[in-house]
Model the fold of this input.
Amino acid sequence: MAEPLLRVSDLKKYYSMKTGKLFGGKTIVKAVDGVSFDLQAGQTLGIVGESGCGKSTLGKTIIRLIEPTSGKIMLDGDDYTTLSGGDLKKARRKMKLIFQDPFASLNPRMTVKDIIGENIDIDHTYATKAERDDRIREVMEMSGLNLDFMDRYPHEFSGGQRQRIGIARAIVLPPKLIICDEPVSALDVSIQAKIINLLKSLQKEMKLSYIFISHDLSVVKHISDRVAVMYLGHIMEIADKASLYRDPQNPYTQALISAIPKMPGEATGEKIELVGDIPSPANPPRGCCFHTRCVHAMPVCSQIQPELKQVDRDHWCACHLCQGCSKA
Ligand code: SF4
Done:
Protein backbone atom coordinates (compact mmCIF):
# COMPACT_ATOMS: atom_id res chain seq x y z
CA MET A 1 0.00 0.00 0.00
CA ALA A 2 1.18 3.56 -0.74
CA GLU A 3 2.50 5.81 2.03
CA PRO A 4 -0.52 7.37 3.76
CA LEU A 5 -1.21 11.07 3.34
CA LEU A 6 -1.73 11.28 7.11
CA ARG A 7 -0.35 9.00 9.81
CA VAL A 8 -1.42 9.68 13.39
CA SER A 9 0.56 7.74 16.00
CA ASP A 10 -0.32 7.44 19.69
CA LEU A 11 -1.77 10.97 19.76
CA LYS A 12 -2.73 12.30 23.19
CA LYS A 13 -4.37 15.48 24.37
CA TYR A 14 -4.55 15.83 28.13
CA TYR A 15 -5.85 18.88 29.99
CA SER A 16 -5.08 19.86 33.54
CA MET A 17 -8.26 20.94 35.30
CA LYS A 18 -8.95 22.39 38.74
CA THR A 19 -11.08 20.04 40.85
CA GLY A 20 -12.83 22.84 42.76
CA LYS A 21 -11.50 21.54 46.06
CA LEU A 22 -10.59 24.03 48.75
CA PHE A 23 -6.80 23.63 48.47
CA GLY A 24 -6.64 23.78 44.69
CA GLY A 25 -6.49 20.13 43.66
CA LYS A 26 -5.96 19.31 39.97
CA THR A 27 -7.06 16.47 37.78
CA ILE A 28 -6.03 15.36 34.30
CA VAL A 29 -8.68 15.13 31.60
CA LYS A 30 -7.68 12.64 28.91
CA ALA A 31 -9.68 14.01 25.96
CA VAL A 32 -7.65 12.05 23.38
CA ASP A 33 -5.75 9.10 24.75
CA GLY A 34 -3.42 7.27 22.40
CA VAL A 35 -5.14 7.49 19.01
CA SER A 36 -3.42 5.96 15.95
CA PHE A 37 -4.60 5.60 12.35
CA ASP A 38 -3.58 6.08 8.72
CA LEU A 39 -5.46 7.99 6.03
CA GLN A 40 -4.70 7.32 2.38
CA ALA A 41 -4.81 10.13 -0.20
CA GLY A 42 -8.24 10.60 -1.74
CA GLN A 43 -10.00 8.67 1.02
CA THR A 44 -12.43 9.63 3.77
CA LEU A 45 -12.08 8.44 7.34
CA GLY A 46 -15.28 8.85 9.36
CA ILE A 47 -14.86 9.35 13.10
CA VAL A 48 -17.99 8.64 15.12
CA GLY A 49 -18.95 8.55 18.76
CA GLU A 50 -21.23 10.14 21.31
CA SER A 51 -20.85 13.73 22.40
CA GLY A 52 -17.84 14.07 24.72
CA CYS A 53 -15.90 11.11 23.26
CA GLY A 54 -13.04 13.36 22.12
CA LYS A 55 -13.68 13.31 18.37
CA SER A 56 -13.73 17.11 17.92
CA THR A 57 -10.66 17.54 20.13
CA LEU A 58 -8.95 14.91 17.99
CA GLY A 59 -9.70 16.88 14.81
CA LYS A 60 -8.45 20.15 16.27
CA THR A 61 -5.33 18.45 17.67
CA ILE A 62 -4.48 16.90 14.31
CA ILE A 63 -4.51 20.32 12.64
CA ARG A 64 -2.75 21.75 15.74
CA LEU A 65 -5.42 24.30 16.50
CA ILE A 66 -4.91 22.64 19.88
CA GLU A 67 -1.35 21.50 20.64
CA PRO A 68 -1.02 17.75 21.29
CA THR A 69 0.31 16.53 24.64
CA SER A 70 2.30 13.80 22.87
CA GLY A 71 2.26 11.60 19.79
CA LYS A 72 3.14 12.09 16.17
CA ILE A 73 1.32 13.49 13.12
CA MET A 74 2.97 12.75 9.77
CA LEU A 75 1.43 14.76 6.92
CA ASP A 76 2.49 14.09 3.36
CA GLY A 77 5.85 12.69 4.52
CA ASP A 78 6.64 15.55 6.97
CA ASP A 79 6.55 15.41 10.75
CA TYR A 80 3.78 17.97 11.22
CA THR A 81 4.06 17.68 15.01
CA THR A 82 7.46 19.37 15.18
CA LEU A 83 6.92 22.16 12.64
CA SER A 84 6.85 25.77 13.76
CA GLY A 85 6.85 29.30 12.33
CA GLY A 86 6.90 29.57 8.55
CA ASP A 87 7.20 25.79 8.07
CA LEU A 88 4.02 25.18 10.08
CA LYS A 89 2.21 27.93 8.17
CA LYS A 90 3.26 26.36 4.87
CA ALA A 91 2.23 22.86 5.92
CA ARG A 92 -1.12 24.19 7.21
CA ARG A 93 -2.05 25.08 3.63
CA LYS A 94 -2.39 21.34 3.05
CA MET A 95 -4.90 20.89 5.87
CA LYS A 96 -8.12 22.83 6.45
CA LEU A 97 -10.96 22.63 8.97
CA ILE A 98 -14.69 22.98 8.36
CA PHE A 99 -16.76 23.70 11.45
CA GLN A 100 -20.19 22.54 12.60
CA ASP A 101 -21.46 26.09 12.94
CA PRO A 102 -20.05 28.04 10.01
CA PHE A 103 -21.82 31.18 11.23
CA ALA A 104 -19.66 31.28 14.35
CA SER A 105 -16.52 31.06 12.22
CA LEU A 106 -17.58 33.64 9.59
CA ASN A 107 -16.71 37.24 10.41
CA PRO A 108 -20.09 39.06 10.38
CA ARG A 109 -18.44 42.30 9.22
CA MET A 110 -16.81 40.75 6.14
CA THR A 111 -18.47 40.11 2.78
CA VAL A 112 -18.54 36.59 1.40
CA LYS A 113 -15.93 37.58 -1.19
CA ASP A 114 -13.51 38.73 1.51
CA ILE A 115 -14.18 35.77 3.81
CA ILE A 116 -13.33 33.35 1.01
CA GLY A 117 -10.41 35.50 -0.17
CA GLU A 118 -8.84 35.88 3.27
CA ASN A 119 -6.55 32.86 2.90
CA ILE A 120 -5.37 34.12 -0.49
CA ASP A 121 -4.70 37.56 0.98
CA ILE A 122 -2.70 36.16 3.91
CA ASP A 123 -0.53 34.05 1.63
CA HIS A 124 -0.33 36.65 -1.19
CA THR A 125 -0.97 33.81 -3.61
CA TYR A 126 -2.20 35.83 -6.58
CA ALA A 127 -0.38 38.58 -8.44
CA THR A 128 -3.34 40.80 -9.25
CA LYS A 129 -6.71 41.61 -7.70
CA ALA A 130 -8.47 40.37 -10.85
CA GLU A 131 -6.73 37.01 -10.54
CA ARG A 132 -7.75 36.82 -6.87
CA ASP A 133 -11.39 37.64 -7.64
CA ASP A 134 -11.44 35.09 -10.47
CA ARG A 135 -10.33 32.39 -8.06
CA ILE A 136 -13.00 33.44 -5.54
CA ARG A 137 -15.65 33.28 -8.27
CA GLU A 138 -14.38 29.86 -9.34
CA VAL A 139 -14.62 28.31 -5.83
CA MET A 140 -18.01 29.96 -5.23
CA GLU A 141 -19.29 28.23 -8.35
CA MET A 142 -17.65 24.95 -7.33
CA SER A 143 -19.38 25.24 -3.93
CA GLY A 144 -22.79 25.98 -5.42
CA LEU A 145 -22.92 29.66 -4.36
CA ASN A 146 -24.64 32.29 -6.47
CA LEU A 147 -22.08 34.82 -7.74
CA ASP A 148 -24.61 37.63 -7.27
CA PHE A 149 -24.12 37.18 -3.52
CA MET A 150 -20.39 37.96 -3.44
CA ASP A 151 -20.87 41.27 -1.66
CA ARG A 152 -23.39 40.04 0.88
CA TYR A 153 -22.75 39.36 4.57
CA PRO A 154 -23.00 36.01 6.44
CA HIS A 155 -26.29 36.85 8.22
CA GLU A 156 -28.00 37.10 4.81
CA PHE A 157 -27.47 33.37 4.15
CA SER A 158 -29.21 30.17 5.29
CA GLY A 159 -27.36 27.50 7.31
CA GLY A 160 -26.68 25.38 4.22
CA GLN A 161 -25.38 28.37 2.25
CA ARG A 162 -23.13 29.35 5.15
CA GLN A 163 -21.67 25.86 5.15
CA ARG A 164 -21.03 26.27 1.41
CA ILE A 165 -19.16 29.50 2.20
CA GLY A 166 -17.09 27.56 4.78
CA ILE A 167 -16.31 24.93 2.14
CA ALA A 168 -15.38 27.57 -0.48
CA ARG A 169 -13.04 29.18 2.07
CA ALA A 170 -11.45 25.77 2.79
CA ILE A 171 -10.74 24.98 -0.88
CA VAL A 172 -9.71 28.41 -2.19
CA LEU A 173 -6.06 27.41 -1.76
CA PRO A 174 -6.43 23.75 -2.71
CA PRO A 175 -5.67 21.65 0.39
CA LYS A 176 -4.90 17.92 0.48
CA LEU A 177 -6.93 17.17 3.58
CA ILE A 178 -10.07 18.72 5.05
CA ILE A 179 -11.15 17.93 8.59
CA CYS A 180 -14.94 18.25 8.63
CA ASP A 181 -16.14 18.64 12.22
CA GLU A 182 -19.87 17.80 12.34
CA PRO A 183 -20.37 19.83 9.14
CA VAL A 184 -24.01 18.88 8.61
CA SER A 185 -25.38 18.22 12.09
CA ALA A 186 -26.95 21.69 12.38
CA LEU A 187 -28.70 21.37 9.00
CA ASP A 188 -32.06 19.94 7.83
CA VAL A 189 -31.88 16.41 6.43
CA SER A 190 -32.48 17.50 2.80
CA ILE A 191 -29.70 20.13 3.08
CA GLN A 192 -27.41 17.57 4.75
CA ALA A 193 -27.64 15.36 1.66
CA LYS A 194 -26.77 18.29 -0.63
CA ILE A 195 -23.70 19.24 1.43
CA ILE A 196 -22.53 15.59 1.58
CA ASN A 197 -22.95 15.33 -2.21
CA LEU A 198 -21.00 18.58 -2.66
CA LEU A 199 -18.15 17.26 -0.47
CA LYS A 200 -18.10 14.03 -2.46
CA SER A 201 -17.99 15.76 -5.84
CA LEU A 202 -15.22 18.15 -4.66
CA GLN A 203 -13.29 15.15 -3.37
CA LYS A 204 -13.44 13.56 -6.80
CA GLU A 205 -12.60 16.77 -8.65
CA MET A 206 -9.76 17.92 -6.35
CA LYS A 207 -8.55 14.50 -5.11
CA LEU A 208 -9.19 15.60 -1.52
CA SER A 209 -8.95 13.48 1.61
CA TYR A 210 -11.41 13.99 4.46
CA ILE A 211 -11.63 13.26 8.13
CA PHE A 212 -15.38 13.41 8.68
CA ILE A 213 -16.34 13.79 12.33
CA SER A 214 -19.94 13.08 13.29
CA HIS A 215 -22.15 11.56 15.98
CA ASP A 216 -24.44 10.22 13.21
CA LEU A 217 -23.48 6.78 11.89
CA SER A 218 -25.87 6.94 8.96
CA VAL A 219 -24.35 10.21 7.71
CA VAL A 220 -20.82 8.83 8.15
CA LYS A 221 -21.80 5.72 6.18
CA HIS A 222 -22.67 7.85 3.15
CA ILE A 223 -19.31 9.57 2.83
CA SER A 224 -16.63 7.37 4.44
CA ASP A 225 -14.29 4.72 3.05
CA ARG A 226 -13.15 3.73 6.55
CA VAL A 227 -14.74 4.43 9.92
CA ALA A 228 -13.24 4.77 13.41
CA VAL A 229 -15.49 4.51 16.48
CA MET A 230 -14.34 6.60 19.46
CA TYR A 231 -15.24 6.34 23.13
CA LEU A 232 -13.66 8.32 25.97
CA GLY A 233 -10.66 9.38 23.92
CA HIS A 234 -9.92 5.90 22.54
CA ILE A 235 -10.54 4.24 19.19
CA MET A 236 -12.67 1.19 20.00
CA GLU A 237 -12.85 -0.12 16.43
CA ILE A 238 -11.62 0.97 13.01
CA ALA A 239 -12.37 -0.76 9.74
CA ASP A 240 -13.32 -0.33 6.13
CA LYS A 241 -16.92 0.86 5.96
CA ALA A 242 -18.46 -2.36 4.59
CA SER A 243 -16.81 -4.54 7.23
CA LEU A 244 -17.68 -2.23 10.13
CA TYR A 245 -21.36 -1.87 9.29
CA ARG A 246 -21.82 -5.51 8.22
CA ASP A 247 -19.89 -7.13 11.03
CA PRO A 248 -19.20 -4.80 13.97
CA GLN A 249 -17.01 -6.57 16.53
CA ASN A 250 -16.94 -4.19 19.47
CA PRO A 251 -20.05 -4.19 21.72
CA TYR A 252 -20.02 -0.37 21.66
CA THR A 253 -20.07 -0.28 17.85
CA GLN A 254 -22.76 -2.98 17.84
CA ALA A 255 -24.93 -0.80 20.10
CA LEU A 256 -24.43 2.32 17.96
CA ILE A 257 -25.21 0.45 14.72
CA SER A 258 -28.30 -1.22 16.23
CA ALA A 259 -29.67 2.26 16.98
CA ILE A 260 -29.49 3.50 13.34
CA PRO A 261 -33.06 4.07 12.09
CA LYS A 262 -33.87 1.47 9.42
CA MET A 263 -35.24 2.26 5.95
CA PRO A 264 -38.62 0.72 4.99
CA GLY A 265 -38.00 -2.91 3.94
CA GLU A 266 -34.61 -3.09 5.71
CA ALA A 267 -34.10 -5.92 8.20
CA THR A 268 -34.55 -4.66 11.76
CA GLY A 269 -32.31 -6.31 14.34
CA GLU A 270 -32.70 -5.95 18.06
CA LYS A 271 -31.82 -2.49 19.36
CA ILE A 272 -29.08 -2.63 22.00
CA GLU A 273 -29.80 0.00 24.63
CA LEU A 274 -26.79 1.79 26.06
CA VAL A 275 -27.48 2.30 29.74
CA GLY A 276 -25.97 5.13 31.76
CA ASP A 277 -23.99 8.12 30.64
CA ILE A 278 -20.54 8.31 29.16
CA PRO A 279 -18.16 8.57 32.17
CA SER A 280 -16.16 11.75 32.72
CA PRO A 281 -12.81 11.80 30.91
CA ALA A 282 -11.49 13.37 34.15
CA ASN A 283 -12.23 10.09 35.90
CA PRO A 284 -12.26 7.32 33.27
CA PRO A 285 -12.94 3.74 34.37
CA ARG A 286 -9.95 1.43 34.82
CA GLY A 287 -9.47 -1.33 32.23
CA CYS A 288 -11.72 -1.08 29.18
CA CYS A 289 -13.17 2.43 29.23
CA PHE A 290 -16.54 1.04 28.08
CA HIS A 291 -16.92 -1.65 30.78
CA THR A 292 -19.33 0.39 32.94
CA ARG A 293 -21.92 0.31 30.13
CA CYS A 294 -21.04 -2.89 28.27
CA VAL A 295 -23.56 -5.75 28.35
CA HIS A 296 -20.72 -8.25 27.71
CA ALA A 297 -18.32 -6.96 30.37
CA MET A 298 -16.26 -9.67 32.10
CA PRO A 299 -14.02 -9.43 35.17
CA VAL A 300 -10.94 -8.86 32.97
CA CYS A 301 -12.61 -5.82 31.38
CA SER A 302 -12.41 -3.75 34.58
CA GLN A 303 -8.73 -4.65 35.02
CA ILE A 304 -6.97 -4.57 31.66
CA GLN A 305 -7.40 -2.09 28.84
CA PRO A 306 -7.76 -4.04 25.58
CA GLU A 307 -5.39 -3.14 22.75
CA LEU A 308 -6.53 -2.37 19.23
CA LYS A 309 -5.91 -5.69 17.42
CA GLN A 310 -6.48 -6.80 13.87
CA VAL A 311 -9.50 -9.07 13.48
CA ASP A 312 -9.85 -9.06 9.69
CA ARG A 313 -8.09 -7.68 6.59
CA ASP A 314 -8.81 -4.00 7.30
CA HIS A 315 -10.63 -4.35 10.60
CA TRP A 316 -9.20 -3.58 14.05
CA CYS A 317 -10.98 -3.85 17.38
CA ALA A 318 -10.15 -3.07 21.01
CA CYS A 319 -12.14 -5.62 22.98
CA HIS A 320 -11.25 -8.71 25.02
CA LEU A 321 -14.05 -10.58 23.26
CA CYS A 322 -12.73 -9.96 19.74
CA GLN A 323 -11.03 -12.63 17.74
CA GLY A 324 -7.29 -12.40 18.24
CA CYS A 325 -7.49 -11.01 21.79
CA SER A 326 -6.16 -13.51 24.29
CA LYS A 327 -6.82 -12.02 27.69
CA ALA A 328 -10.52 -12.94 28.10
FE1 SF4 B 1 -17.12 -4.87 26.64
FE2 SF4 B 1 -15.03 -6.02 27.80
FE3 SF4 B 1 -15.05 -5.68 25.17
FE4 SF4 B 1 -14.79 -3.60 26.79
S1 SF4 B 1 -13.35 -5.29 26.54
S2 SF4 B 1 -16.09 -3.71 25.00
S3 SF4 B 1 -16.12 -4.17 28.46
S4 SF4 B 1 -16.43 -7.00 26.38
